[in-house]
Amino acid sequence: MNGLERAISEVGGVCNLARKLDLHHSSIILWRKNGRVPAERVLAIEQATGVPREEIRPDIFSKHESTGVAA
Questions:
Q1: How many CB atoms lie within 10 A of CB 56?
Q2: What domains appear along the chain, each with residue ranges and CATH number?
Q3: Which superkingdom does the taxonomy of this entry point to (predicted)?
Q4: 69 — pLDDT class (breaks 50, 70, 90)
């Protein structure tokens, strides 16, 4: 399960995630289709769901960034 799918699961579905982010559910569906969450939405998803940013977008966030541990 990728980070977006886990975030969707954590809040109980696409519509619930969209509500938490104050977005239309079609945005979440588009991210799912494209296989990528926009970088500017990652931190809000992390805050709303508890899914770590490096799991949502591992291509731009490393585990060290979210934990504050020096690389």
A1: 24
A2: 3-67 (1.10.260.40)
A3: Bacteria
A4: very low
Mean pLDDT in residue range 30-39: 96
Quickly count: other Cβ atoms within 10 Å of residue 45's Cβ: 29
Residue 31 CB coordination number (10 Å): 21
Looking from the CA of 59 toward its CB, the CA atoms found within 13 Å total 6
For 39-62, write each residue's pLDDT tens digit.
999 999 999 999 999 999 999 998
CB 14 within 8 A of CB 28: yes
> pTM for the complete prediction?
0.85
- Largest CA-CA distance found in the chain, in angstroms, rounded: 38
